[in-house]
From TrEMBL:
GO terms for biological process: regulation of protein stability. It comes from the Eukaryota. The lineage of its organism: Eukaryota, Metazoa, Ecdysozoa, Arthropoda, Hexapoda. This is Transmembrane protein 183. GO terms for cellular component: SCF ubiquitin ligase complex.
Length: 356
């Protein structure tokens, strides 16, 4: 039979209380009569399941004073207003930027990231020269452990100021120094360098060993670092947040003997393996390289394999680490393209084998 409109409208304004275990088996006292849950909103008490309109009602579980649970149907609230409108309508205060600037004097170095994410004003403060100069004076100035290359007392250079202050904090600030000591207690993981591009290789001779350095940079295929010709060169020199070593790590391998490494600039590290050497006194490091990041896979053999035997130890350093081999920050070039063609030719290793 067709439903009557009057019954449906009347049913939406009544209550419905389900019979639960708390009303019988789990009841603390014998229940002779089940009480209906009473709510201030419109509820449905005498409505069959086929008459429930899901578009107008929500299923809500309620707990009364006695601890009994019941499932009731309530009308849905009107969610037509967007979240942005709700945020704009909330009461709040907008503080001037000078207040945030005064608060920035008391921000700890490890909390700078949280401070910069509060609002636009705090983010712009972390881009100022005065912010990093004040941070340097509080924690680094005239510190006995600060190396001379990171002293800023007589330096008025703005390019890369943020990078130099952060590097100085890892020499003087106790929290950052403890982080470095904790990382040194654990073995370095060269496997985290996979899918990074080699940008430089060099050697360093010690008293009883040789050190080989591999500098890797994180690949950014969707982001090309290219300066627009309309950008003023003077403005680029004033970039406080400039960091040429961003997303760069250095692998230091200390060997007992010297091993010649071919030019690997532009190639991508595809595989890393560490095994014991033949006499079980040292370790042997295998590095596999490919010419492109799309060729990096476990199922694809590397185009070039570099084997370093008699390895004493190896370390992975980030750009802020005190032992990271830093050079002077070069001036920004007109075009810096990380997607340039690799320097190493495809037939390099075949030619070398023919020369032997």
């Amino acid at each position: 039979m067709p439903k009557k409109k009057g019954q449906k409208k009347k049913a939406n304004n009544q209550a419905l209380a389900d019979f639960t275990l708390n009303d019988c088996a789990n009841a603390s006292k014998p229940v002779l009569k089940v009480k209906k849950s009473v709510t201030t909103e419109a509820v449905i008490s005498e409505l069959s399941w086929d008459e429930i309109n899901e578009d107008e009602l929500d299923i809500v579980e309620e707990v009364d004073v006695n601890g009994t649970k019941s499932i009731v149907f309530k009308k849905k609230r009107n969610h037509s207003r967007t979240e942005t409108e709700d945020v704009d309508s909330r009461p709040g205060n907008v503080y001037p930027e000078i207040i945030w600037y005064l608060i920035s004097w008391y921000i700890k170095p490890e909390d700078i990231g949280y401070f910069a994410r509060i609002n636009k004003a705090t983010y712009s403060i972390t881009k100022r020269e005065s912010f990093w100069r004040t941070l340097y004076k509080r924690h680094c100035q005239y510190h006995p452990k600060l190396p001379d290359r990171l002293c800023l007392e007589n330096s008025y250079k703005l390019y890369g100021l943020r990078q130099r202050v952060i590097r100085a904090l890892y020499h003087t600030y106790d929290v950052f120094v403890k982080r470095v000591l904790q990382q040194a207690a654990h073995d370095s993981q060269p496997h985290q360098l996979v899918k990074r591009r080699c940008v430089n290789v060099w050697y360093c001779k010690g008293s009883t060993h040789w050190s080989v350095y591999f500098k890797f940079k994180k690949l950014q295929p969707m982001k090309r670092i290219e300066m627009n010709k309309n950008v003023d060169f003077i403005e680029e020199l004033g970039r406080i947040d400039a960091n040429p070593d961003e997303d760069t790590q250095v692998l230091q391998v200390t060997c007992q003997n010297f091993y010649e490494v071919p030019p690997l600039m532009g190639m991508t590290l595809s595989s890393v393996s560490v095994v014991l050497s033949q006499r079980f006194r040292h370790r042997r490091l295998h590095l596999g390289f490919n010419t492109g990041d799309h060729n990096v896979s476990r199922n694809i053999l590397p185009e070039c394999s570099v084997v370093l035997d008699t390895v004493i130890n190896f370390y992975v350093f980030d750009w802020w680490h005190p032992k990271y081999p830093h050079f002077d920050n070069p001036l920004p070039l007109n075009v810096m393209d990380d997607e340039s063609v690799p320097v190493l030719k495809k037939d390099f290793f075949t030619v070398c084998k023919g020369d032997l």
